[in-house]
Design brief:
This protein is about 20% helix and about 30% strand. By secondary structure, it is of the alpha/beta class. A hairpin with a 5-residue loop joins strand 23 and strand 24. Helix 1 crosses helix 6 and helix 3 packs parallel to helix 6. Bound molecules: adenosine monophosphate and magnesium ion.
């Protein structure tokens, strides 16, 4: 990203003063967290998406027996036809999945075999059915070009007895449920889920179903927060809307902190309003009011209320989502005891010029597309105001414009963070 697109305002290149960088803020948050260690035992189906609390050691070989990867004919590799030869083999029996052949296969003999069936004694190679000609009902002809060991799955080649299959802190996926069941493991120990309480603050906020007076807005933050939290493995406590009154806020903070590991609020942390909740929070915990060099999401409050982690997100609907994804989500994963892989990013060609002010990290909302040739391109979702939630709704990625970036020209590569990477 080079600095070709600059509007000539005298202020454009002035870094914001007294602000915290995005990466530093994220690190400070992570440094303040002790992961949950409490655990519970769950049956496999209930453990999907949960964080493993123990290493899983395989009690078995998988596959348990050397078996065929194809329907075909099993024979000894040293008995295969050489060079341009063809050979006729006597068919001495069959091996089915669940019904193995009990005899021994000698030179000049073969055994009909099905996928998954145990490889008969005396054989180590399978020739695919399609490559074999039946000569008589009890004999087949096999040509050359085969190799010893082909189409055979060795016992333990997927997982060996005593091997570590999954490590503690791993988040269980559908494939893991398959792996665990293939080992005969029906229950696993996982970490307790974080409990997250959240509420919106603001006298102008109305809940769905209420009438809107002049200046009122429906509370949307609680719904986007609900959506983002729902995709993580957390227990949710939705506490509704809390009025901008000292008494109501004090009560809500106390209630939330008594029930939850994490308290998330939106609104009330912008410069004017911060003064209002500051005294309440300072009495009950350790709170930092940060100005982060980012857009959107400049004001962020972080700290502790009692024993709970606290995030006071900005009120603007886009800022809520950006700060959640950039700060709260990694914090919740870390708290849950999961290995913290940062969301992945990719490079895409910008379809347009993107103006960017130096000195702050901008998270512009973009539409990432792939053209017929597989090339990735990205364009903005129009107006980028922090109150314009449609800019998030239309987007499928953030366009990442770090502090030093001075803008992007059409045709330049830019880093994007797909929304899918947060799930
Ligand atoms: P605040 O940070 O409380 O000053 O709020 C900044 C802006 O976001 C104001 O326009 C608020 O009306 C709006 N806002 C705050 N909370 C919400 C919410 N829960 N839903 C929708 N808009 C909100
Ligand atoms: Mg407010």
């Amino acid at each position: 990203m080079s600095g070709l697109i600059r509007r000539s305002s005298c202020c454009d290149d002035v870094p914001e003063t007294g602000t915290l960088k995005v990466d530093d803020a994220r690190q400070r948050i992570l440094d303040s967290i002790k992961p949950i260690t409490a655990s519970e035992k769950l049956t496999l189906r209930n453990a999907l998406g949960r964080v493993l609390a123990e290493d899983i050691i395989s009690p078995l070989d998988v596959p348990g027996h050397t078996n065929s990867a194809m329907d075909g004919y099993a024979l000894a590799g040293k008995d295969l036809p050489q060079d341009s030869e063809q050979m006729i083999y006597k068919l001495i029996g069959s091996s089915f999945a669940g019904a193995p052949f009990s005899g021994h296969c000698e030179a000049g003999q073969c055994v009909r075999i099905m996928t998954g069936a145990v490889i008969p004694a005396g054989t180590d190679t399978v020739v695919m059915q399609e490559q074999v000609k039946t000569v008589e009902s009890d004999s087949v002809r096999i040509g050359n070009g085969h190799r010893t060991g082909q189409n055979v799955r060795q016992a333990g080649e997927d997982i060996a007895t005593g091997g570590t299959v999954l490590r503690a802190s791993h988040i269980l996926t559908p494939a893991d449920l398959g792996i665990l069941s293939s080992l005969g493991i029906g229950e696993v120990r996982v970490r307790r889920r974080p409990r997250v309480a959240f509420f919106s603050t603001g006298d102008e906020l109305r809940s769905i179903g209420e009438a809107l007076a002049e200046g009122d807005v429906y509370d949307s933050n609680r719904y986007s927060l609900y959506g983002m939290l729902q995709r993580l493995d957390v227990e949710l406590l939705d506490m509704g809307v809390v009025r901008d009154s000292e008494e109501a806020l004090r009560k809500a903070f106390a209630e939330a902190a008594a029930m939850a590991d994490v308290v998330i609020t939106s609104g009330g942390v912008s410069v004017g309003e911060a003064d209002y909740i500051k005294p309440i929070l300072e009495q009950t915990g350790e709170i930092h009011f940060w100005k982060i060099a980012m857009k959107p999401g400049r004001p962020l409050t972080h700290g502790r209320i009692g024993n709970s982690l606290f995030f006071g997100l900005p009120g603007n609907p886009v800022a809520v989502m950006v700060t959640f994804y950039q700060f709260v989500q990694p914090a919740l994963k870390y708290l849950a005891g999961a290995r913290s892989n940062p969301p992945w990013t990719i490079m895409a060609t910008s379809k347009e010029d993107i103006f960017k002010r130096k000195g702050r990290y901008e998270f512009q909302r973009g539409i990432l597309e792939q053209d017929a040739g597989g090339q990735l391109t990205v364009r903005k979702t129009g107006q980028q105001g922090s109150g314009i939630l449609m800019s998030m709704s239309r987007a499928n990625c953030f366009i990442l414009l770090p502090e030093d970036c001075q803008g992007v020209s059409a045709g330049e590569e830019v880093q994007v963070q797909p929304f899918d990477s947060f799930i």
